[in-house]
Amino acid sequence: MLDAAEILKARILIVDDQKANVLLLEQMLRNAGYMHITSTMDPHAVCPLHLAHRYHLILLDLQMPDMDGFQVMEGLKEIETTGYLPVLVITAQPAHKLRALQAGAKDFVSKPFDLIEVQTRIHNMLEVRLLYQKLDNYNKILEQTVLERTAELRESEARFKSLTELSSDWYWEQDSQGKFTKISGPVIEMLGIATDDTSGVSGVAATGRWNEAERAQLNDNIANRRPFLDFVYSRTNADGTLQYLQVSGEPMFDSTSLFIGYRGIGMDVTDRMHRDQEERHLRGDTNKIVDGTD
User: Fold this and answer.
1) What is the CATH number of the domain that holds 37?
2) Which end of the chain has fewer CB atoms within 10 angstroms, the N or the C?
């Protein structure tokens, strides 16, 4: 809501070719406490004045020589690109009221003035206008905040992706149907995916023989949308050697909690697994010697 001080600080322009009417409206507004009042008897000056000061309210007489109020409003429409004309028309002709509203005016008062009515209409119109502007400013701030947060999220995602690429051999994303949508690193070669089938690929090519039990466990995690960390599975290459791959993944959901796929990282841990096996073998031999079983 607005307090009284905000309304009284509004910028008001009085436009009338009769000096007596201008003086009467000026005095009424000052007595009511309005602080920023401008007036002109020249209708040609209205658009330049409004362009420079962006008045919250224009009290506009319709019947003026050379250029009437309807022509003034046509000029104001070129300035107010949103289509909102902050105009309260003043007319002695009842037939002009509907035409003025159709031309874009927001309200009207009749001559001769009822000062209480004029003051009330001015207050109400200013309250609506200032609330509208406050809402518009809030929406602009909100839009800017969203843009800034989106940029921050994109920067954060880029940093995350960079870190995952440094700490792993590949980064991957799949959609809800299991098709790869993003691949970074040598995942194609490591998983045996055909190089001409990366768009929309839903699985891996039959390069080597996968450990079926391990693959079944991995597929079960994905099918049930469970996160998994450092899961190791293996395959036998065409030359008979074993290759070990380690993957970590998590399900992705949109803002409505709808499952949209998986993302994760992976690496070839064959060398590490072979080293671990050798170390276990050496520890086993050492234990035999200690136990005297050799």
Assistant:
1) 3.40.50.2300
2) N
